[in-house]
Design goal:
hydrolase, zinc ion binding, TIM Barrel, 11 helices, Xyl_isomerase-like_sf, nuclease, 10 strands, alpha/beta, globular
Length: about 300
């Protein structure tokens, strides 16, 4: 089943009088959403009791949980101390995910900095492998790490780099942020064919099983020559990309991803809009008597 949900909490959640993320699962379920990405982007500050309560509420409302690790992780740093701290940040996030029963942890792999990109990539690969080793030793091996495609040119996180990292361990699933891909390509996703090429590239790299259950981020993104500048709402159609194109490809390939919306301040509302767009596309396919081509649903 395909799932839609927000990255963090919309402004409206707090405007309605809610104060704690433990109330998000019921709030989202009442909206018709089924996923939630808890944000540890500025640090892992959630207590064990709060995390466990959030997890219990998510399980009761059938909300798929993921956690976003801190933004300041840099697995490619030339400084050993910073790499070791980055591993620690991931492990801390995995601990919080374990408490709440979250299935996935989204991670940034870092930046190239002033050094050589190839050397930075090799350093990040080595650090990621050590992270996986330590995570397994601590009992976190059942939580999926999801390296994210990043939006700025100087970040280590092109589609190709992330897919190469995911080849290191079959448990890794990429976080494909289509807004970041669009920005990184300076407006690269403009048609169904553009999205389909991305999906085929992923399938060729890591196989259909992981493709089918992809972790995705989606929002409209403003960009400059350096890549991503700012996330916008789905209704800000002066910016791309268009979710309708991706929805067609998801249906065609019989995929069942988790799609997390990162629209600025309105992520839950826009996640619902993405769900509506997908369901309208699916209804159109059924009405026209078309079948998904490629892989059939199990």
């Amino acid at each position: 089943m395909i799932r839609f949900g927000p990255s963090g909490n919309s402004d409206s959640f707090y405007e309605q009088g809610y104060k704690s993320s433990v109330d998000m699962p019921e709030w989202l379920a009442n909206m018709g959403l089924s996923a939630y990405e808890y944000q540890c982007s500025r640090g892992v500050n959630i207590s064990e009791s709060t995390a466990r309560k959030l997890g219990e509420n998510a399980w009761a409302k059938d909300i798929f949980l993921s956690v976003h690790a801190p933004y300041y992780i840099n697995m490619a740093s030339e400084e050993k101390e910073k790499r070791e701290k980055s591993i620690g940040y991931v492990l801390d996030t995995l601990m919080a995910a374990k408490w709440m029963g979250a299935k996935r942890v989204v991670i940034h792999t870092g930046s190239v900095g002033k050094g050589n990109r190839d050397r930075a990539f090799k350093t990040a690969v080595s650090t990621l492998l050590e992270t996986i080793r330590q995570a397994d030793a601590m009992g976190y091996g059942d939580i999926t790490l999801c390296p994210e495609v990043l939006g700025k040119m100087n970040q280590l996180g092109s589609l190709e780099e992330i897919l190469e990292m995911c080849k290191l361990d079959e448990r890794l699933i990429p976080t494909i942020d289509f807004g970041h891909l669009h920005a990184r390509g300076l407006g690269a996703l403009n048609s169904i064919d553009d999205f389909e090429k991305v999906i085929i590239t992923i399938e060729n790299a890591i196989g259909y099983d992981r493709l089918k259950n992809l972790h995705c981020h989606f929002s409209r993104v403003e960009f400059t020559a350096g890549g991503e500048k700012k996330h916008w709402r789905i209704f800000d159609d002066q910016y791309g990309p268009e979710f309708e194109y991706l929805a067609e490809v998801l249906i065609k390939k019989a995929m069942e991803p988790v799609i997390i919306c990162e629209s600025r301040n309105y992520m839950a509302e826009d996640a619902l809009e993405l769900k509506n767009i997908y369901e309208n596309a699916l209804t159109g396919v059924k009405k026209n008597g078309k079948e998904s081509i490629g892989h059939k649903r199990a």
